[in-house]
Amino acid sequence: MKVNGTPTRTIWLAEDGRTVEIIDQTRLPHRYEITRLETLDDACRAIKDMLVRGAPLIGATAAHGLALAMRADPSDGGLATAYDRLFATRPTAINLRWALDDLRTRLTPLPPGERATAAVARAVAICDEDVALNEAIGDHGHAIFRDLWERKGQPERFNVLTHCNAGWLATVDWGTALAPIYKAHDAGIPVHVWVDETRPRNQGASLTAWELNQHGVPHTVIVDNAGGHFMQHGMVDVCIVGTDRTTATGDVCNKIGTYLKALAARDNGVPFYVALPSPTIDWTVRDGVAEIPIEDRGPGEVQRLWGRLDSGETAWITVTPEGSPAANPAFDVTPGRLVTGLVTERGVCAASADGLSGLFPDRAAA
């Protein structure tokens, strides 16, 4: 995708071939800043403090973080320590574990002297593969949008509602739930996006809206609780979201508030799709509500907001009374029965064990 007209990814190998550069997403939308990752500590901080976020990008960053660690200490002990530290940064997104397991499996048989070079090559490959997976998701989702738009008589505005940020900022490029939106927009479908603000970190208002602005996609930011109202009044044609972990039975774990959107969509007959690359599927889990660990983040994200003041300065402000505690579960689980379909790089399937195993017989049987 492009930033100010320049093709850009969210993470890339720096010109020195050794360090890694990322977009610091905690500064968006008011500042566009590049941060350099030089050590394992830098990579762990980038993931934990959400300079990078989104399941696919977390996995890509973890891969690069392990590669950085191998430059400093390629021993078996160094590999184990780096794996454990990166694994502990965030618990919910399965892509983190997937990327770390992938690299550990490839690096363990190698002599320590070969591990750093191999780790860098694999991290770069994981990033390239993520781009290809997400573009394919965009193609399959675009076909769904076109079919819905045509069946509605090709209205002058095709309204899509999304929650949180599942665009290219959540991946290496293209995005998951936003990839079909970009494809449809570029193909001439008059897409308009209702952008949930996505409290408490406002990834919709700050990141999704910024992305759509950069690409010229018409959109409107709405408060999290407005989606059901718009659905009741026929102002949403389709919902599409991403997911940080999908069970083998089709349950999806996404940013807190997704479950409520799915309930509203079901009540109003609005199709509710979830877009995901296959590394986001956790084939070891069958009951998302009971088995997926939900990250509890600090209360400060609920109590405080970061934004731009009328003076043009950026600052944190406190919105809750002093002494009021806050709870902050970062994700919720939407049961597969509420999902119209899962949009993957291999196509679209039912959010069920049969649907997923039909698309991925090689993975389901593993």
TrEMBL record:
Substrate binds at residues 53-55, 90, 203, 254-255. GO terms for biological process: L-methionine salvage from methylthioadenosine. Pfam families: IF-2B (PF01008). The active site is at residue 244. The keyword Amino-acid biosynthesis applies. Keywords: Amino-acid biosynthesis, Isomerase, Methionine biosynthesis. Pathway: Amino-acid biosynthesis; L-methionine biosynthesis via salvage pathway; L-methionine from S-methyl-5-thio-alpha-D-ribose 1-phosphate: step 1/6. The record marks 164 as: Transition state stabilizer. GO terms for molecular function: S-methyl-5-thioribose-1-phosphate isomerase activity. InterPro entries: IF-2B-related, IF-M1Pi, IF_2B-like_C, Initiation_fac_2B_a/b/d, M1Pi_N, NagB/RpiA_transferase-like. Catalyzes the interconversion of methylthioribose-1-phosphate (MTR-1-P) into methylthioribulose-1-phosphate (MTRu-1-P). Also catalyzes the interconversion of 5-deoxyribose 1-phosphate and 5-deoxyribulose 1-phosphate. Part of a bifunctional DHAP-shunt salvage pathway for SAM by-products. Belongs to the EIF-2B alpha/beta/delta subunits family. MtnA subfamily. PANTHER family: METHYLTHIORIBOSE-1-PHOSPHATE ISOMERASE. NCBIfam families: eIF-2B_rel (TIGR00524), PRK05720.1 (NF004326), salvage_mtnA (TIGR00512). This is Methylthioribose-1-phosphate isomerase. It comes from Rhodospira trueperi.
